Amino acid sequence: MSERLKVGVIGIGSMGANHARVFANRDDVDLVGICDSRPEAIARISHRHRVAGFDNIAEFLEQAQPDAVTVAVPTSLHRAVAETVLRAGVHLLLEKPIAATVEEGREIVALARENRVKLMIGHIERYNPAVQELRRRLQAGELGEVYRVEVDRVGPFPARIFDVGVTLDLAVHDLDIISSLLGTQPTRLYCQSQQLLHQNHEDAMIGLLDYPGGILAVLNINWTTPVKRRQLRVYGRKGMFSVDYLTQDLILYENPAQRDSELGWGPLGIAEGNSIKFHLPKQEPLAREVDFFLDAIRTDADLSETVESSLAALKLSQMLVQSAKSRASLDVG
Fold first, then answer.
1. What is the mean pLDDT of residues 176-181?
2. Rounded to the nearest 10 degrees, how much is the dihedral formed by the CA atoms of 56, 58, 63, 69?
């Protein structure tokens, strides 16, 4: 594989257009084409980046001959589009979730292995500098024993998303992040949801997940809030880490009441202490994600962990939807 790669984008909606922009701004790749079913979108993006536009995937792959592509089509189309790309021997960065179902996701994984090409799933929050710094500090033990994680991922309803509900579209982000931060999967979960605006699926959910060691995760995810908020909080013996995904801020709120080995927590086990805001360089998570993908192609790096984590997050998302429908808690297994 030559150092300079030919790349393209299939599906140029909101996320796909961003992928095209990131590719076009790099000096180590050539954006050789974009593909979409909408003529107006093709005209707009192809003109913006002075690149060939296609409305047929097979023609795009045959004529542009990309080494790698991003696929950012509706989730219900992931399986079919991914098969076309992978059978053409093209490396694939597939936007999350990996597929509409775990079964379809595993079929995509098998196709990538069969055709010996790289497959990576676009869980963009993994590449947020604040999340990466949080992971480093948790692994260093700076929070002590973790006992709870809370997530708020809320905002207005996006009319463009019609084929999945808020759980598969948004909660899958945090399910991937939480399991990555904790280094384990939950054992049990429960969910309640609402359908206020979406015609076919839930647009608000509250999820509870039990992780090994008594760690509790609480998800507040919806499309029914008039302000966009993306926050993650991790609680431990030594305090609380707070992440704002949008501003890329990481703050530690210290707990000065350290645990006594004999007395345990006791009534004074939690107290208000100092707050420390860490100064991190602001970087676009999508650009960092694309860096990771292209480096994996050039170095033949193993991407199986990202794929398996994506499958696990999809499984949990589906189980949360099932729990909400049945009003029952479920063993993850």
1. 96
2. 90
The number of residues making up the chain comes to: 333
Pairing between strand 204-211 and 188-194? Answer: antiparallel
Burial 97-129 (b: 16+ CB within 10 A, else e): bbbbbbebbeebbebbeebebbbbbbbbbbbbb
Average pLDDT over residues 32-54: 96
Please classify residue 315 by burial: count the beta carbons closer than 10 Å to its beta carbon, then call 0-12 exposed, 13-18 middle and 19+ buried. Answer: middle
Asked if residue 118 lies in contact with residue 297, where contact means CB atoms within 8 angstroms, the answer is yes
Q: Containing H/E element for 94?
A: strand 91-95
DSSP E strands in 172-211: the ranges are: 188-194, 204-211
Q: Which CATH number fits domain 126-284+315-331: 3.90.226.10, 3.30.360.10, 1.20.1250.20, 3.40.50.720?
A: 3.30.360.10
Q: Which CATH class for the 5-122 domain?
A: alpha beta
Contacts of 157 (CB under 8 A, 6+ apart): 197, 198, 203, 223, 224
**Average predicted confidence (pLDDT) for the chain:** 93
Beta bridge partners of 166: none
Model pTM score: 0.91
**pLDDT value of residue 159:** 74
The predicted structure's pLDDT at residue 261: 45
268's CB contacts (< 8 A; 6+ apart) are: 257
**Terminus-to-terminus CA distance in the chain, angstroms?**
41
pLDDT digits (tens, 9 = 90+) for 46-77: 999 999 999 999 999 999 999 999 999 999 99
126-284+315-331 matches 5-122 in CATH topology: no
- Express each pLDDT in 126-146 by its tens digit: 999 999 999 999 999 999 999
